[in-house]
């Protein structure tokens, strides 16, 4: 069993490992999404506020969730705010109100929304709260086990719609703000992030899942979104956007990049021209958000990431490609088939 990918069994391909250990089965995803959809409906009805919409983001929304480590971001777009500063001024109160609404539900209120009390209401509790979000943990019963699901609720306003969908206009507005204020814009771009990741091929999402699983099981400090950006970058720049790439090839390239983490300067061309905003990039390491030129997703845990990636590269040398160590036409399987054919031919020769 590997110490770099917990649960990996010697001789299996990374594709098989993802199938059996990392990617959530469809019935699990359906069960989690049912709960998350209930939370979305409940948030829509929060009294005292005019809510435009609640967008389900995070790994569940993007399709990059890992088994037993599901998380959902509920981005709540509020009406009634003219600019980001007015929202920032109210955020702490909004978060306090969300906490009270979620953790101390009024039976008369939720019975108006649901025919019966949802099971997550009995398990919900706060695990983190700051000026950007409030993080809850809820538990969902699946096959007799209580599975944890992290739910982040993040207040936002639809700044993109206020600029008529013109992202360049939004960036120019951000350009004149302090770095502290700019930090509150990122969550407002959740729909653009979803549009970027959701349509990607299933195998790209599996590569992202593998990167998330790797950093979490090795106790590294990284943002899940950084893994998503790196997965997209590797697919575009190193796998030539081929959907039939070998998972070992993609993961190996990721470990090569992470082994020199301090030298990473990753941008993905798309919504913005990187040349226009390069003066705002960090001087050294960065993995930029493809929809926000002011947002660096990289980690400061440089030494630990590099050390673990270097060790993982050595370990990967003994991991077979999908066609080598698994499937009907693996080397072992091919030898077995040939042996059977030889035996059959010998038997036929005796009969004749």
UniProtKB/TrEMBL annotation:
<dbReference type="InterPro" id="IPR018952">
    <property type="entry name" value="2-5-oligoAdlate_synth_1_dom2/C"/>
</dbReference>
<dbReference type="InterPro" id="IPR043519">
    <property type="entry name" value="NT_sf"/>
</dbReference>
<protein>
    <recommendedName>
        <fullName>2'-5'-oligoadenylate synthetase 1 domain-containing protein</fullName>
    </recommendedName>
</protein>
<feature type="transmembrane region" description="Helical">
    <location>
        <begin position="328"/>
        <end position="351"/>
    </location>
</feature>
<dbReference type="GO" id="GO:0003725">
    <property type="term" value="F:double-stranded RNA binding"/>
</dbReference>
<dbReference type="GO" id="GO:0005524">
    <property type="term" value="F:ATP binding"/>
</dbReference>
<dbReference type="GO" id="GO:0005829">
    <property type="term" value="C:cytosol"/>
</dbReference>
<feature type="domain" description="2'-5'-oligoadenylate synthetase 1">
    <location>
        <begin position="169"/>
        <end position="321"/>
    </location>
</feature>
<keyword id="KW-0472">Membrane</keyword>
<dbReference type="GO" id="GO:0045071">
    <property type="term" value="P:negative regulation of viral genome replication"/>
</dbReference>
<dbReference type="GO" id="GO:0001730">
    <property type="term" value="F:2'-5'-oligoadenylate synthetase activity"/>
</dbReference>
<keyword id="KW-1133">Transmembrane helix</keyword>
<dbReference type="GO" id="GO:0051607">
    <property type="term" value="P:defense response to virus"/>
</dbReference>
<dbReference type="Pfam" id="PF10421">
    <property type="entry name" value="OAS1_C"/>
</dbReference>
<comment type="similarity">
    <text>Belongs to the 2-5A synthase family.</text>
</comment>
<dbReference type="GO" id="GO:0016020">
    <property type="term" value="C:membrane"/>
</dbReference>
<dbReference type="GO" id="GO:0005654">
    <property type="term" value="C:nucleoplasm"/>
</dbReference>
<keyword id="KW-0812">Transmembrane</keyword>
């Amino acid at each position: 069993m590997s110490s770099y990918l917990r649960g990996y069994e010697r001789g299996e391909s990374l594709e098989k490992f993802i199938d059996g250990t990392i990617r959530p089965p469809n019935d699990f995803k359906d069960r989690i999404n049912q709960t998350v959809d209930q939370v979305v409906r409940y948030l829509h009805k929060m009294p005292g506020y005019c809510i435009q919409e609640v967008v389900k983001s995070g790994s569940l929304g993007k399709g990059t969730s890992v088994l037993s480590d599901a998380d959902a971001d509920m981005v709540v777009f509020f009406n009634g705010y003219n600019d980001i500063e007015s929202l920032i001024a109210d955020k702490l109160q909004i978060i306090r109100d969300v906490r009270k609404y979620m953790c101390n539900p009024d039976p008369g209120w939720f019975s108006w929304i649901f025919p019966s009390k949802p099971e997550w209401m009995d398990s919900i509790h706060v695990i983190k709260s700051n000026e950007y979000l409030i993080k809850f943990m809820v538990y969902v019963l699946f096959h007799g086990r209580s599975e944890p699901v992290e739910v982040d609720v993040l207040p936002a306003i639809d700044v993109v719609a206020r600029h008529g969908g013109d992202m360049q206009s939004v960036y120019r507005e951000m350009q004149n703000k302090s770095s502290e204020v700019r930090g509150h814009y990122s969550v407002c771009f959740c729909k653009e992030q979803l549009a970027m990741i959701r349509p990607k091929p299933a195998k790209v999402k599996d590569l992202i899942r593998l990167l998330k699983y790797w950093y979490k099981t090795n106790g590294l400090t990284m943002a899940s979104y950084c893994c998503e950006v790196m997965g997209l970058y590797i697919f575009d720049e190193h796998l030539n956007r081929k959907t039939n790439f070998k998972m070992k090839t993609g993961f190996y390239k990721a470990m090569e990049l992470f082994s020199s983490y301090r030298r990473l300067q990753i941008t993905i061309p798309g919504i913005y021209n990187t040349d226009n905003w390069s003066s705002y990039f960090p001087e050294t390491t960065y993995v930029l958000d493809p929809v926000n030129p002011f947002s660096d997703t990289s980690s400061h845990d440089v030494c630990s990431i590099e050390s673990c990636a270097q060790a993982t590269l050595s370990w990967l040398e003994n991991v077979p490609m999908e066609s080598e160590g698994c499937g009907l036409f693996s080397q072992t399987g091919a030898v077995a088939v040939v042996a059977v054919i030889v035996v059959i031919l010998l038997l036929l020769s005796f009969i004749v």
